[in-house]
Amino acid sequence: MKNSLKTLGLIIMLFALVPALSFAKKIDKREVIATWSKYEVSTVAVGQNGTKSLKVWGYGKKIDKAIEQAKKNAVHACLFRGCPGAANARETPAIFKLQGSEQVSIDNFEYFYDFFEENGDYIAFVNVTTDGIPSGQDRRQVKGGYKVCISVQVMYDNLRDKMKRDGILNDSSSRFSY
Predict the structure, then answer these.
(1) I need a labelling partner for 73 at 20 to 30 A (CA). Which of 15, 26, 44, 129 fits?
(2) In this predicted structure, what is the pLDDT of residue 15?
(3) pTM (predicted TM-score)
(4) C-alpha separations of 172 from 123, 134, 138, 175 in Å
(5) Is residue 1 part of a domain?
(6) What single DSSP character describes residue 159?
(7) How far is residue 155's CA from residue 129's CA, in Å, rounded to a whole number?
(8) Residue 138 carries which DSSP code?
């Protein structure tokens, strides 16, 4: 009986320590934010109703993970980097350009960490225009996995409106950002 009580006590103590240990590792926000911006994006066209059509690259250990990352990258570009100009489309500034995009992402780190989680809120602003799994030049096997390119339509105006509703984007700083 004593051994079972000791064992039960140890198990309870372990369950109490596990949450504390999981929070012991401090996340370096700047490091995470830096990894969010390592991608290639190009503008295909500015679409109707406040959309941007982009070609964007994503990396992943598996093809589906690379496609998912490319979708995140497209939304990230609209929020923080902006979309480069093209022959038939002018450059589109980042939604947070005037607020200082790096500072916005640091100040709202938890919000954007959750926003960009797998199947997070970001997905509501993405229409994928590539059918099926990329092939040919749009799919490359690289060290550690795959690099894929997909065509994506981002609902830019809706994304900007969400940032305003959620209190992340100041109305005064967004006036000239698009």
Answers:
(1) 26
(2) 45
(3) 0.77
(4) 27, 41, 40, 6
(5) no
(6) H
(7) 13
(8) G
pLDDT tens, residue by residue, 36-94:
667 889 888 887 778 999 999 999 999 999 999 999 999 999 999 888 888 877 888 99
End-to-end CA distance of the chain: 71
pLDDT of residue 36: 66
CA distance 19 to 111: 21
CB 79 within 8 A of CB 88: no
169 touches 108 (CB < 8 A): no
Q: To which residue do tokens 């590792």 refer?
A: 25
Domain that holds residue 46: 26-174
121 occurs within a structural domain = yes
Domain count, the chain: 1
Contact 88, 104 (CB under 8 A): no
Top mean-pLDDT range of 33-37, 95-99, 106-110, 168-172: 106-110
Element (H, E) at 176: none
Whether residue 115 lies inside any domain: the answer is yes
Q: State the Cα–Cα distance between residues 32 and 102, nearest whole angstrom.
A: 11
Q: Cα–Cα distance between 100 and 33 in angstroms, integer?
A: 13
Q: Is 114 left (phi over 0), alpha (psi -120 to 50) or beta?
A: alpha
Distance CA 170, CA 150 (A): 31
Q: Specify if 52 maps to a domain.
A: yes
